[in-house]
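FAQ: What does a multi-protein file look like?

Like this. Sequence, then tokens, then the next protein.
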Amino acid sequence: MKRFSSLMACAVILLPLASANAAAPDPATLFEAKTVADRDGALAALEAAAPSDPASAYAAGAGEFFTALEILASGLHRHGFDSPQSFMLPLMRLPVPDNANPEPLTYGQFRAILTAFRDRLERSAATLGSVPADADIGMAIDLGRFGIDLNEDGQIAPDESALTIMAALARGGAAPDGAAPTLTFRFDRADGYWLQGYAEFLMAQADFWLAHDFRNTFDGSFHMLFPRAKLPLQDTLVPLDGGMNGSIFSSEWRFADFISLVHLINWQVVEPERRQAARRHLLEMIRLSREDWKAIRAETDNDREWLPGPQQKGASPLTGLEVGEDQVQAWHSALTMADDLLEGRVLLPHFRIADKGINMKRFFDEPKPFDLVLSITGPAIAPYLESGKILTGEEFDQIQRQFRGAGFLTFALWFN
């Protein structure tokens, strides 16, 4: 009995050592999975290993980010989403396949989809944030083999790859013609900050919507996004043929409904803490972008970079652009400008008012009903007007000039 007790004691002592020495999960099983079941199994294994293994945490955070997109895409597909193919609705540009038998959609269900999307992004940001700054990360990922399930069939097909999705987003939501080419990047620690920053950016958008009651907008215009989901005005305003697959500006009925959408953005605040959170997410995105560039500048290699620094010469195979020192300096100026605006140190100008500007910190932290048209024309932003330093057009133009032909927006979407 004494010998048995001794053996048990040894086993208890050695068990943690055996667990610590166990091989960490292979991230490739996540990034190359062909089914949702295999992908989810790999993600669960990486999440379990994440507290003790930075590489697992890094891969799990990336997997959680893309499964957040899958939550959104699946919800949209379930209800027969038809992309408006417009940059003005950034959360609505995923290349979701047609659904011949969509389920009806209610306002409450749409809020639930947005909430689940936002909560998974929060989980991703927390997991990526747990990766130590000095972690040695290097994961080669073929974006043509890694994807999400857009049509809820349990499979991750080649036309659902990350590369295909990015190509569709670049085209405004339209699926590209033919298969996307193979494109492999080696993702390092800096790229973790980049992805975490994008999670914060998307959370800010979702929280801003969820902060308000937008039921009237949903009831009065969302049939342009879900033409067959039994929304209140479907039978009255959607063409009998469904009017599918048309961009806002190439379809008369969708353009009319887009005008309705803009007119109906007069939202009461129902969850003020979410509007306050949106500002914090944007500030965190700015902080992470600075950390990203600090890590990029410290890199001495030049191995299939997702976002290269000025010292890593050569055009990116993704964007065809090369990053120069002037552009990095201009980007940091843009970050400072955005930070100053969100903290209320600098005021946002309004074309009708010369001597006062909008305090964006108060816009988020002291939320009042959000009326888009009246914000543009002036009355709705009057409560946030203050005297002080106002951002000038010349300051922004000076930053824009540093990005030359490709333009500020192209680099901003890439740089995050």
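And here is the next protein:
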Amino acid sequence: MLLRAHGRAVGMPSDDDMGNSEVGHNALGSGQVYAQGAALVSDAIASGSLFEGAAWQEVVANAAREGATLHLIGLLSDGNVHSHIAHARALVEAACNAGVRHVRLHVLLDGRDVPETSALDYLLPFEAFLSALREGGADARIASGGGRMRITMDRYEADWDMVARGWSVHVHGEAARFPSAEAAVKSFRAAQPGIIDQDLPAFVVADAAGPVGCIRDGDSVVLFNFRGDRAIEITRAFEDESLDAFDRGQRPRVVFAGMLQYDGDLKLPARFLVSPPAIRNTMGEFLARAGVPQLAISETQKFGHVTYFWNGNRSSPFDPALERWIEIPSDRVPFEQRPWMKAAEITDALIAELQTGRYRSARVNYANGDMVGHTGNYAAAVMAVEAVDLALSRLLPVIDALGGVALITADHGNAEEMFELDRETGAALHTPEGRIRAKTSHTLNPVPLYLHDRVSGGRLGLRQDPGCGLANVAATTLHLLGFEAPAMWCPSLLELRPR
């Protein structure tokens, strides 16, 4: 059967919004649909509550002082997975209207949640917007940037060097210098034909006097990404006095705020513009209270998804005595170069743990289809899917031998559609050079849900419901374990069939 994994089914603002791993795992793990960061921020901007909040007022009051600057760091696209360009624009306008005289943007270029070489489609209109502000007397400029997979947006401490490069360019102005972000993108593309936006090197915008926007003592900094996983490390770089993951050099003392609080357990950041969703009554909590031993396993790239996001944005187990979390370290190479990733190692560890007989419930994420799908490399994506198929061919017979069942699904679409399609005709889109255009973003497609069952003699099945989504999986899982799901959850899809 198929499950909805995008739009309102996972708490996004509209059904035109693709799903993502964060909201997908929130839905899978909680059995409920919560309004997520994209919707919460858009609503807070539209209502004006963001700008009335104490955090924004503090940021602006500090940046409006003589000699101070407001710096905005974030992903500049409309992918609506980690950020939205409209949010950045709203913050710039509000700051200028509040008397902030100097605003600098440190832009992360996408090409991952949006078409792979679309950076100028966002940069040029945004530069025109900033130019109009300058004509009105504001000093608002782009100061630095680079591809999101080269700088700043690491997650789960997989590659602190990414954060170090971002810190050097945003804070200290240390990177190749260009007169504008547009010039940087065009220069990099000319030097490296075929490079896609997420991989573009870091750059600094500079004039005759040097970099136009290093971050200094006394400035204000807002990270306008709303999604937490790729925001935590750069947040720690600004807020954590004891951080020693890389050499920060002279660390500026700033008034820092995140768009949301990215980790409620760790209180990161301390100051945030919009409150995150308060996700309660998750499956992990239910099973812990019921005394059910649980296993969560993935490689680094998705480890936080089967733990933190699955448990409703909670950094630690509900009951450490009953829950084991296993992280298989990810390789630090481009995903298209090793599309099998850690599927074999995950499966080895998972099989060994299941055969101990300790667990009644286990969850695993194979990251291949998502991470390799984002590269736009079709051949690599085929190998990635084959790697997962091979892993399942090893895993499922073990589950059969142990008398268990398995639910197999995905948190969103991606690798099943590796070329951009016209929504109206379904025809493949082409680049100006005539090539079929690779698709690097998630899709709006529903995802399959399979019930693998060799123990019930065919009595267990899944009922078809066109309105069901990822949030229905939690109650289905509890049903398989012999529990009644909480009333606030989306209903179980499990049904008993006549013999």
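Q: Is there any per-entry metadata?
A: Some entries carry free-text notes. For the entry above: The chain has two domains: 2-35+279-496, 37-274.
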